[in-house]
Amino acid sequence: MRPLDVDSLNPALKNVEYAVRGELAIKAEALREELKNPDNRLPFDKVISSNIGNPQQKGLDQPPITFTRQVAALMEWPELAKLAPNVFPEDVVQRAHELQAEIGSIGAYSHSQGVPFIRKNVAKFIEERDGYPSNPNHIFLTAGASVGVSLLINMLINSPKAGILIPIPQYPLYTASLAQHSGVPLPYLLDESSEWSTSIQSVEDAVKKAQDDGITPRALVIINPGNPTGALLDASTQEALVKLCEKHSLVLLADEVYQNNLHKPETHTFTSFKKVVSQLKSPIPLVSFHSISKGVSGECGRRGGYFECDNFSEEVIALIYKMVSVGLCPPVSGQIGVDSLVRPPKPGQASYGLWLKETSAIHEALASRTHTMSERLNNLPGVSCVDSPGALYLFPQIKLSKAAQDAAKSAGKAPDAFYALGLLDETGICVVPGSGFGQKEGEWHYRLTCLCPGVDEYVGKLEKFHRDWVEKYGEA
Ligand SMILES: Cc1ncc(COP(=O)(O)O)c(C=O)c1O
């Protein structure tokens, strides 16, 4: 018997990289373990996970929305409504009864595409958001947005010469899925000098380069609001992008999981691509992704999300259905989470007051942290940081001196990874180096989340580390 070794496995898997849970995150876990030893000599007393948008993670302070959890609790164990008759508000009990009548036990497989009743509720949510019809039969509930993205990429990559246009910097799910399915990433650069906006010319340049290289671009990925940049697209850019997809016969993959994370709603509003495509009566095939992991729901571990297909033929929808049915169904608890996301309590209902208070507090905390952190980072020598209007992150640029770059080289690390490892070693703060998302050659960044409590102490540590670094290696 030959031992099972990596070289005998699917070679595509070797190329998969996912920095958000990469070297830094692995080291952070090891340090967390080390801290449990009372004799540890670490210069900090806690590890701060600023590497991943996981709002309810231990150590962070975002609480779950009570309404979502109460509905979930009654779905898990319907007896609870009788055993604790005064605990659950009337609208929660009603919601759970309604869902139980549609779903039955959450321990049973559901329809592979997702519970039809919940899909109808998703369609109503989209219609109310955008003012255009949505077809529940073209909506697929998923175990988080990631599963949908990976499935669509798998379906679209029809040859090793097929590529997908992805923003740089990007959320590494895209490069990881492309590597897994042997597709070619076709990077287009976002413009940091204008709040990480998307330039049509840079997408056109990427299409042209692909064609020159003999690669067929199949789809354009847009992450709006952006990860890691937090950028929000304006309507005219969205329209131009839709037209660009028409011109080059591209499928538009619109990752809109942060649509409810808006920190400057007076000036920066979200418009879905579904609305833009509908307004323009564009024939482009559009897939829009949403998730319960982000927004104010933050239910990352529950694994729930959906994607909606527009301008897809029934034949293609049937093929997607065939593929999702191989996995039987998305987690029913995640589907119930999606139902709560798209049907929050309304004014006049018993849960509304608390829901409003909880969601407003989360929005306010995120907006104020994002702003304070970017302001303070911008005051550091050699650091510039766009004050993100959306999502959960900042992506500051750090100028690194020749001495710092040489030290990184001797350590066998990319300069930004070297910086991030130093930050982790000295402060316990875990961020992700920009190289994990892609960045312009010769530039260095890191991504940190805006989810950590105690901003003063937290940013204070970042500032001290950076100033010490500049003292050690000099200004760039
Ligand atoms: C842009 C973007 N898309 C998709 C996802 C996947 O989220 P989930 O699979 O938890 O829904 C994430 C997670 O961080 C993300 O940032």
From TrEMBL:
Under the heading InterPro entries, the entry gives:
ALAT1/2-like, Aminotransferase_I/II_large, PyrdxlP-dep_Trfase, PyrdxlP-dep_Trfase_major, PyrdxlP-dep_Trfase_small
GO MF annotations, alphabetized: pyridoxal phosphate binding; transaminase activity
Do you know which CDD domains this protein is assigned to? AAT_like (cd00609)
According to the lineage, what is the superkingdom? Eukaryota
**Which intervals hold domain Aminotransferase class I/classII large?**
89-450
UniProt keywords, alphabetically:
Aminotransferase, Pyridoxal phosphate, Transferase
Obligatory cofactor(s): pyridoxal 5'-phosphate
What Pfam families does the database record attribute to this sequence?
Aminotran_1_2 (PF00155)
Q: Which family does it belong to?
A: Belongs to the class-I pyridoxal-phosphate-dependent aminotransferase family. Alanine aminotransferase subfamily.
Known partners and oligomeric status? Homodimer.
User: By what name is this protein known?
Assistant: Alanine aminotransferase
What organism is the protein native to?
Answer: Crepidotus variabilis
